[in-house]
Amino acid sequence: KPLEHLQMPTGMRELFAASVFTARLDYNKAPFPTEVTEYIQTVLTDCSLYDYVDRRQQYYQQLTRQPLPCEETLKDASALDSIESAARIWDHIVSPLKGKIVYADIWGTWCGPCKWQMEAVPALKASLKREGEDGVVFLYISIFSPEESWRNVLKEYHLTDPNSVHYN
Q1: In the beta sheet, which residues pair with residue 107?
Q2: 4-24 confidence digits (pLDDT tens)
Q3: How confident is the model at residue 134 (pLDDT cuts 50, 70, 90)?
Q4: How far is CA 62 from CA 31, 48, 134, in A?
Q5: In terms of CB atoms within 10 Å, which of 38, 42, 67, 69 comes out highest?
Q6: Mean pLDDT score, 70-90
Q7: Three-state secondary structure call for residue 74
């Protein structure tokens, strides 16, 4: 609870706290657990700042509850656990895609630039379709990503479709 120790006027401290909380929500792409939201209520006495954070919290709660379209595009990564060579892991992942054009994206839910880049994917897919390349497979390999955050990123950026393959 380091916020109480900040030497600044209360209003400024609450504004800073609200920006930290919303940044953390957007970084994690997942709602806070109950104990964190209870703490936020004690820190943010300004109703408008609390409402601002709460709206982001509600967004991620709603996103978490949404079904994931094309769930079948999510692959079980546990089969990769027994493979010790990175080259063999890669071969295992791409061998079912042989003969296809593959757009590979290795990313993590913790990586800001990775998530920013994903905002461009719908335009890329549309551009490829216009050029007659609708057979491109989009292979996404997420590393060190919590399951809930990973699924929420896939939902938020509309990354699941029949031409996608996802590993976490």
Answers
A1: 142
A2: 777 788 889 899 999 999 999
A3: low
A4: 9, 21, 31
A5: 69
A6: 92
A7: strand
Distance of CA 134 to the CA centre of its chain: 25
| Alpha carbon distances (Å) from 64 to 16, 22, 156 | 26, 16, 10
Q: How far apart are CA 165 and CA 73, in angstroms?
A: 5
Paired with 104 in beta bridges are 139
Asked whether the predicted pLDDT for residue 32 surpasses 90, the reply is: yes
> Tokens representing 138?
């989009």
Return left, alpha or beta for 41; rule: phi > 0 is left, psi -120 to 50 is alpha, else beta. alpha
Contact present, 109 and 145 (Cβ < 8 Å): yes
Contact 153, 128 (CB under 8 A): no
pLDDT at position 30 over 90: yes
Closest Cα partner for 36 from 61, 65, 6? 61
